[in-house]
Specification:
Length: about 190
């Protein structure tokens, strides 16, 4: 129906301006094609919304079986720790209540900015959805404003892992401030050199 309206509009414009000069026809063609492309983009829902990766089939299935637990968070700041040996990136997020949420794992790759893809996480409001029985993260539902990580700290070392210095995924730290933790992780770069 919309296609027929555009075709009829093109025929009408061609008939109405058949004696016009080349410049007028070029301008009309440009305007007509611009409107046509905008209408097609709106009909195709471009850019895609919401601004996060689409939920996978596993999350849909777990939600239907009531095996998905959602934890909501509000964050102010964040920093990222480089991944090492394929364990996925680490994020530390300063929560509004003063705690520091640690998230780590391969699932975070889905929210990393890529070639031409915008950053989805970290953000000011988000929910981490976990498997109710197994406890592993299934996905993150992003909302609010995007938070650019303040720094990228060096990866944890094998010694850090061996001595229990790496918080577990989903752990909330309350024994130090965000600034203290960020400085500790940045200082690790100089210890590694």
């Amino acid at each position: 129906m919309i296609g027929s309206a555009f075709a009829a509009g093109a025929i009408y414009l061609f008939g109405a301006f058949r004696h016009a000069g080349f410049g007028v026809i070029a301008i009309l063609t440009f305007v007509y094609m611009s409107v046509l492309m905008m209408c097609i983009a709106v009909m195709m829902d471009y850019p895609p919304l919401p601004r996060q990766p689409r939920m996978n089939e596993i999350a849909d299935d777990l939600e239907q079986r009531r095996l998905l637990i959602s934890s909501n968070f509000c964050a102010d700041r964040a920093f990222r720790v480089e991944q090492c040996n394929g364990e996925g990136p680490h994020y530390f997020l300063e929560l509004e209540d003063g705690g520091i949420l640690h998230l780590s794992g391969n699932y975070l790759y889905d929210y990393e900015p890529g070639e031409g893809a915008p950053r989805h996480f970290p953000c000011t409001h988000f929910a981490v959805r976990r498997h109710a029985d197994l406890g592993h993260a299934v996905d993150i539902v992003c909302g609010g404003l995007i938070i650019e990580p303040e720094v990228e700290a060096p990866p944890y070392s094998a010694w850090d892992f061996a001595h229990g210095m790496v918080p577990r995924d989903g752990q909330i730290l309350r024994n130090l401030t965000f600034d203290q933790l960020r400085q500790q992780r940045i200082a690790a770069r100089y210890r590694m050199q």
